[in-house]
Specification:
Number of strands: 9
Order of helices and strands: HHHEEHEHEHEHHEHEHHHEHHE
Largest sheet: 6 strands, parallel
CATH topology: TIM Barrel
Strand content: 5-15%
Number of helices: 14
Shape: globular
Number of domains: 1
Distance between the termini: 33 Å
CATH architecture: Alpha-Beta Barrel
Helix content: 40-55%
CATH class: Alpha Beta
Strand order of the largest sheet: 2-3-4-5-6-7
Structural class: alpha/beta
C-alpha cells in the first residue's frame, strides 16, 4: 500500500487494478488514513476551518432521483429565507466566530441574478473580512460572473459522478452530465475557488465510477471537494437503496487528500449522520473543514436532502463550543478565519 500512496503524493498515476486495490482491497485502512493525515498536516497543520451553512431555500426545479427536495416530492414543506433572515444568520455567525458563510439552496427561480447579487454585496459590505460561498446549482455563466463581481468568493457544485452513464442513472432526462461539467469549468475560469464532489455508495455505483471520480479530480484540480455517503430519502425513487458505507467513504476522503494535497476537504454532515463520530473520523482521514448549520432552527428539518440529516448538537452553529472540544480531542484545532485554499492566501 505504501508504495502506491507514495506514487500518488508524488503526482504519479495508478493503473485501474492499483486504484481498485486501494478502494476495495483487503489491507489495514488505518495506514491509509494516517498517510492522508500526514499529507494534510504538511499543508494545513492541525487547523480545521469552520463554515457557517445557511440553507436559503428548499424549492428546486430539478428532479434528481436521490434528493429529498426534488421537484416531484409533494410531501416537502417548502420555504424561502428572506434577505433579512439570511443577513440575521450571518450576524449570528459572525458573533460566534464564523468567517465564511455558505449560502446553499435548491435551484429556485425566485433567486434571480439580481437578487443573489444584491444579497452577496450586502454581506460583503457588512463583513469585508469574510468569504461568501454560493451553492445554488447550475446557472448561466453570466450569473456566475455577476455574482463573482458582486463579491462571491467560492462556489460549490458537486459533479456527483465523473461517469456520464452513471450520471444519467441518477438524474432524469434534461439534466445532463455535459452541462454540469461545463458549469464547473466556467466557475473555475471566472476565478471562483471552485468545489466539486460526489456521493459514495450511490445507486448503481461501481468501483470503476470511483476510479473515474479520482481521475477527474486530479485533472480538474478543484479547490474544494465534498464527499459524503449516499443516504436514501424515503420520498424518492431510491428510497429502498442501501446506504453508502462509512469505511468506503473514509477511504475516498483519504485518497482524495493524497490526490489533491492542498484541497479544502470537508468532514461532511452526512458522515456525522451515519456515525456519531463520523466527523472526527473524516478529520483523521484527511479532511480539514466542518460546516455547522447556521440556518434558522425552524427550517433546518425542512432542508432534508436525505433521511435523518444531522442538524443539531455539534452539527449546529450554536453547538460550536462542543464542536471545538471534540475537534481538539481528535487532535486538531478549530481556527477563526476565512480558511482559503492554500494558494489563495
Amino acid at each position: 500500500m505504501k508504495d502506491l500512496t507514495d506514487r500518488l503524493t508524488a503526482g504519479g498515476e495508478l493503473s485501474d487494478d492499483e486504484w481498485r486495490f486501494l478502494i476495495e482491497g483487503d489491507y489495514d485502512r488505518r495506514r491509509l488514513y494516517e498517510e492522508a493525515d500526514r499529507v494534510r498536516r504538511q499543508s494545513y497543520g492541525t487547523d480545521v476551518y469552520i463554515r457557517g451553512l445557511i440553507e436559503i431555500s428548499n424549492f428546486c426545479k430539478n428532479d434528481c432521483l436521490y434528493c429529498g427536495i426534488r421537484r416531484s416530492n409533494g410531501n416537502v414543506k417548502r420555504y424561502r429565507l428572506s434577505k433579512e433572515e439570511i443577513c440575521a444568520c450571518c450576524e449570528q455567525g459572525y458573533g460566534l466566530g464564523f468567517r465564511t458563510f455558505v449560502l446553499q439552496g435548491g435551484e429556485d427561480s425566485y433567486h434571480t441574478t439580481e437578487w443573489v447579487a444584491e444579497l452577496v454585496s450586502a454581506i460583503k459590505e457588512k463583513y469585508p473580512d469574510c468569504a461568501v460561498t454560493l451553492s445554488l446549482g447550475e446557472r448561466p455563466q453570466k450569473d456566475y460572473e455577476i455574482w463573482y463581481q458582486a463579491g462571491a468568493d467560492r462556489y460549490l457544485l458537486r459533479h456527483e459522478t465523473a461517469s456520464r452513464p452513471h450520471y444519467e442513472k441518477l438524474h432524469p432526462p434534461g439534466q445532463t452530465f455535459a452541462h454540469r461539467m461545463e458549469c464547473l469549468r466556467s466557475l473555475k475560469q471566472i476565478g471562483y475557488q471552485t468545489g466539486a464532489g460526489f456521493m459514495v455508495g450511490s445507486p448503481f455505483q461501481q468501483t470503476d465510477e470511483l476510479i473515474a471520480d479520482l481521475r477527474f479530480l486530479r485533472e480538474f484540480q478543484p479547490h474544494m471537494v465534498g464527499i459524503g455517503p449516499f443516504i436514501p430519502h424515503h420520498d424518492t425513487p431510491f428510497s429502498d437503496k442501501p446506504q453508502g458505507s462509512l469505511e468506503r467513504t473514509l477511504t475516498m476522503v483519504a485518497l482524495t487528500r493524497l490526490v489533491l494535497p492542498r484541497t479544502l476537504l470537508p468532514a461532511t454532515t452526512a458522515l456525522g449522520t451515519i456515525h456519531p463520530e463520523g466527523r472526527e473520523m473524516g478529520l483523521k482521514a484527511g479532511a480539514n473543514v466542518v460546516m455547522p448549520n447556521l440556518s434558522p432552527v425552524a427550517v433546518r428539518g425542512q432542508y432534508s436532502l436525505y433521511d435523518n440529516k444531522a442538524c443539531t448538537g455539534q452539527e449546529a452553529a450554536e453547538g460550536l463550543a462542543a464542536l471545538k472540544k471534540s475537534v481538539a480531542q481528535a487532535g486538531y484545532r478549530v481556527v477563526v478565519g476565512r480558511g482559503d485554499y492554500l494558494e489563495r492566501r
